[in-house]
Write a structure and sequence with these properties.
single chain, 6 helices, mainly alpha, about 170 residues
Length: about 170
C-alpha cells in the first residue's frame, strides 16, 4: 500500500495501473534513458571523443592534434552539461506529472520546447568550416529524446484534460 495514493484510491487501497496512467511515466523514463545514451555516446571510442575528433579533422585539416583535442574537450564538456540538465529536467518533469497533473502540461511543454530547441541547435549549427559543428550521428542521437518528449507531452496533455476537477 506504499504507493496506493499515487495512482488510485487510498481508502480502498486500489492502485490504478492502467496503461493511461502509466504511459506518461514510461515514455518519460524512455526519454531519460535516451538522454543518458545521447550524453554517453560521444565519449565512446579510443580516445574518448574520437568521432568528434575525426569530424573536426575533416573540417579543419590544418589544425594540430592539440587544437583538435582542445576542441573535442570543449564539445564533450558542453554535451555533458546539456545532458546533465536534460536528465534533471526529465526527473523534475516526472515528479511534476506524478504529483501535479494540471501543472504538468506546462512544465512538460516548456521542457519540450527548450530541450528540442537546444537539440536542434546542436544538430544544425554550422562552424567556420561550413560543416555542422557536431558529427551527424551525434546530432541525430541528441534529437531522439525530443521524440520521447513529444509523445510524453501529448500523453500528459491528454491525461490532464481527462482528470476530474478538484473539489475544495
Amino acid at each position: 500500500m506504499l504507493f496506493s495514493n499515487m495512482f488510485g484510491n487510498k481508502e480502498r487501497g486500489i492502485v490504478n495501473t492502467s496503461l493511461s496512467s502509466r504511459a506518461p511515466m514510461v515514455t518519460m523514463t524512455s526519454g531519460l534513458v535516451l538522454t543518458v545514451v545521447a550524453t554517453v555516446v560521444p565519449f565512446v571510442g579510443r580516445p574518448p571523443g574520437s568521432l568528434i575528433a575525426e569530424h573536426l579533422r575533416a573540417g579543419y585539416p590544418g589544425y594540430s592534434e592539440s587544437q583538435i583535442a582542445a576542441a573535442v574537450g570543449i564539445y564533450l564538456i558542453a554535451l555533458t552539461v546539456v545532458g546533465a540538465l536534460g536528465v534533471v529536467t526529465w526527473i523534475v518533469s516526472m515528479l511534476v506529472a506524478r504529483r501535479y497533473v494540471g501543472a504538468a502540461r506546462w512544465v512538460c511543454a516548456a521542457a519540450f520546447v527548450v530541450g528540442t530547441g537546444i537539440a536542434l541547435f546542436d544538430a544544425s549549427i554550422r562552424d567556420t568550416s561550413g560543416d555542422t559543428g557536431l558529427p551527424l550521428p551525434v546530432g541525430v542521437l541528441g534529437l531522439l529524446p525530443s521524440i520521447a518528449g513529444a509523445v510524453a507531452l501529448v500523453l500528459v496533455w491528454r491525461r490532464a484534460g481527462n482528470r476530474a476537477p478538484r473539489t475544495l
